[in-house]
Design goal:
The protein is of the alpha/beta class. It folds into three domains: 13-333, ABC transporter transmembrane region fold (Up-down Bundle); 354-429 and 509-593, P-loop containing nucleotide triphosphate hydrolases (Rossmann fold, 3-Layer(aba) Sandwich), CATH 3.40.50; 440-495, no CATH class. It has helices spanning 13-29, 31-62, 74-119, 122-127, 130-173, 175-222, 224-229, 233-286, 291-333, 393-400, 423-428, 444-449, 457-466, 470-474, 493-507, 523-537, 572-578, 581-605, and strands at residues 354-364, 367-377, 382-386, 408-413, 416-417, 430-433, 511-515, 541-545, 557-562, 565-570. The strands form two sheets. The protein has a six-stranded mixed beta sheet with strand order 6-7-8-3-9-10. The protein has a four-stranded antiparallel beta sheet with strand order 2-1-4-5, covered by helices on one side. α6 (175-222) runs parallel beside α9. The radius of gyration is 37 Å and the shape is elongated.
Length: 623
């Protein structure tokens, strides 16, 4: 399978600095901790640089060729131990002080992304891929932790140590040692930067394939029943493996290029170390340097090039972290399609009158859904919208909740254009029982109380009773603490819909929307719930989206939609008398109900139809 081109452009310095600048406010929030951690870092590096000098003093004091009497160099030994201890102490203090900065930054960024995702419009969430999105956020937050910790406490201290060691070698041993050190470091850094930039394409490809594979797995598992219905387990496994194969190819290229990078870095370090030790050994032979000088230079080289080798790893990982953060921060760059205007007031609901004024809307330039829809729902009345599938009924609900803004016309509540008020206050004033009720993977109590988390248990149970749900819950082994499963899959369609009705009863809003609210209920449960809803809606403005016309015969007004337009309006009796689309739909549904009733009667009579034996079964009729 030919790999697709990466969905993101290659990394560049401006993009990296943009990601780093995004984190600066979180560091500034804890600037005193950052300053204290940096002070500990400098003290640790100062102690680290002192270690080779203490070691040089020990070796020179024990060199019998330089002194006739060898005595124990107590001061240098104690100094060596103190320098080692100080380096470790200040290093650990640095990490402990900075821990809150790192973890708080991760928490704040994750929360910011989470809130931003909820601010994004419905269109984004209809198009998103949940598995890939969750993986991008997971990698991005992990990248923040790595970037903050290693950039401040590995890149910076290593650069400080390089400068200190090069300065000491220059002052104490001349330009030759400092020059070789500088050339080695420069070659190492240049090689690391060049190869790492080239390797980033493989990391990006890995990330993209990882997100796609995760999306495929999550989507397949969420649709477990559909997979089983069609026996497509092997098909799903093949699709998942196709993504894993692409990831495997990118991962292999990433690893082989890493091996090339590591070998090149090792070769540069080996060349530099050999040259410097050659020069130091030659100085000892010539009598210009002592054995202590040789040990000191060797210790500095090890102290310098071991972090340098780690510096290459850190730089690579920082680039990987920036690549991981890119996808997460790109979410923050997405602007919400629907936004409150600056200084927008809260919606004030006095009576609850809803008006659609010549509303036109389309989900795209080539997909026009509504054409000049114009109607009103007087305060306290119930208006039903019916019509064939695809007529635009559910789009009315999405526009009323302002998941999208109308493109022409306006929607008013008590004379207030909903585009001029805050979305939070608008949605607080409307309660909905949707056609497809998706529940949180939590308890029944949690899902009902979600409408008003501060509600008392008595209020939650009262709402369940009004929704004809309490007796069912009471019969469960764990009662209200029963977990409903992912998306409520442990409940039947009717039970989920009754739970949604209980939730809106608990919310107690002035405006109600029922979008096919009883579509998953049998006739007996439907009649019981319709009575409860009738009492609930008696003093509220109610919009009912219905397919089953028998549920809206008592509406004050019924609107009939077809192809995005209102083609008929009136009461149930008036529409029947018109003999139009509504009358035709009513006639079809009455015929369906009559047929269902006849079939139920025949089934209840026991033997109303012929009994056919199973193929291959013996004929058990009496002779």
């Amino acid at each position: 399978m030919r790999p697709r081109p990466a969905s993101h452009p290659p990394p560049s310095l401006p993009r990296d600095w943009k990601a780093i600048r995004t984190l600066l406010p979180y560091l500034w929030e804890h600037r005193w901790r950052v300053g204290l951690a940096l002070a500990c870092l400098l003290l640790a590096k100062g102690a680290n640089v002192a270690v080779p000098w203490m070691l040089k003093g020990v070796v020179d004091a024990l060199d019998a060729s330089r002194r006739p009497e060898v005595v124990l160099p107590v001061a240098f030994l104690l100094g060596y131990g103190l320098a080692r201890l100080s380096a470790s102490l200040f290093g650990e203090l640095r990490d402990a002080i900075f821990a809150r900065v790192t973890q708080r930054s991760i928490r704040r960024v994750a929360l910011q992304v989470f809130r931003h995702l909820h601010r994004l419009s419905l269109r984004f969430h209809l198009e998103r891929q949940t598995g890939g999105l969750s993986r991008d956020i997971e990698r991005g937050t992990r990248g923040i932790s790595f970037l903050l910790s290693f950039m401040l406490f590995n890149i910076l201290p290593t650069l400080v140590e390089i400068a200190l060691v090069a300065g000491i070698l220059l002052v104490a041993y001349g330009a030759g040692f400092a020059g070789v050190t500088f050339l080695t470091v420069t070659a190492y850094i240049a090689f690391t930067l060049a190869v790492t930039e080239w390797r980033m394409q493989f990391r990006r490809r890995m990330n993209e394939m990882d997100s796609r594979a995760n999306t495929r797995a999550i989507d397949s598992l969420l649709n477990y029943e559909t997979v089983k219905y069609f026996g497509n387990e092997a098909y799903e496994a093949r699709r998942y493996d196709d993504q894993l194969a692409a990831w495997e190819e990118a991962a292999i290229r990433n690893q082989t290029s890493l091996s090339l990078l590591n070998f090149g870095q090792g070769a540069i370090i080996a060349a530099g170390l050999t040259a410097l030790l050659w020069m130091a050994a030659d100085g000892v032979v010539a009598g210009a340097l002592t054995l202590g000088d040789l040990v000191l230079i060797n210790a500095y080289l090890l102290q310098l090039f071991i972090p340098m080798n780690f510096l290459g790893f850190v730089y690579r990982e920082i680039k990987h972290a920036l690549a991981d953060m890119e996808r997460m921060f790109s979410l923050l760059d997405r602007e919400p399609e629907v936004r409150d205007r600056p200084g927008a007031p809260a919606l004030v609901v006095r009576r609850g009158e809803v008006c659609f004024r010549r509303v036109s809307f389309g989900y795209g330039p080539d997909r026009r859904i509504l054409h000049g829809v114009d109607f009103e729902i007087p305060a306290g009345q119930k208006v039903a919208v019916v019509g064939p599938s695809g007529a635009g009924k559910s789009t009315l609900v999405r526009l009323l909740f302002r998941f999208y803004d109308v493109q022409e016309g306006a929607i008013l509540i008590d004379g207030q254009d909903i585009r001029e008020v805050t979305q939070e206050s608008l949605r607080a004033a409307i309660g909905i029982v949707p056609q497809d009720t998706v529940l949180f993977n939590d308890t029944i109590y949690y899902n009902i109380a979600y409408a008003r988390p501060e509600a008392s248990r008595e209020e939650v149970e009262r709402a369940a009773r009004l929704a004809q749900l309490h007796d069912f819950i009471a019969g469960l082994p764990q009662g209200y603490e029963t977990v409903v499963g992912e998306r409520g899959l442990k409940l039947s369609g009717g039970e989920k819909q009754r739970l949604a009705i209980a939730r809106v009863i608990l919310k107690d809003p002035p405006i109600l929307v029922f979008d096919e609210a009883t579509s998953a209920l049998d006739s007996r449960a439907e009649r019981a719930i319709l009575q409860a809803l009738e009492s609930l809606a008696r003093r509220r403005t109610t919009l009912v989206i219905a397919h089953r016309l028998s549920t809206v015969v008592d509406a004050h007004r019924i609107l009939v939609m077809d192809r995005g337009r209102i083609v008929e309006r009136g009461t149930h009796r008036q529409l029947l008398d018109q003999g139009g689309l509504y009358a035709h739909l009513w006639s079809l549904q009455q015929e369906e109900r009559a047929l269902e009733a006849e079939q139920e009667a025949e089934g209840g009579a026991g033997g109303g139809g012929a009994v056919l034996p199973c193929p291959g079964a013996p004929d058990q009729r009496p002779a």
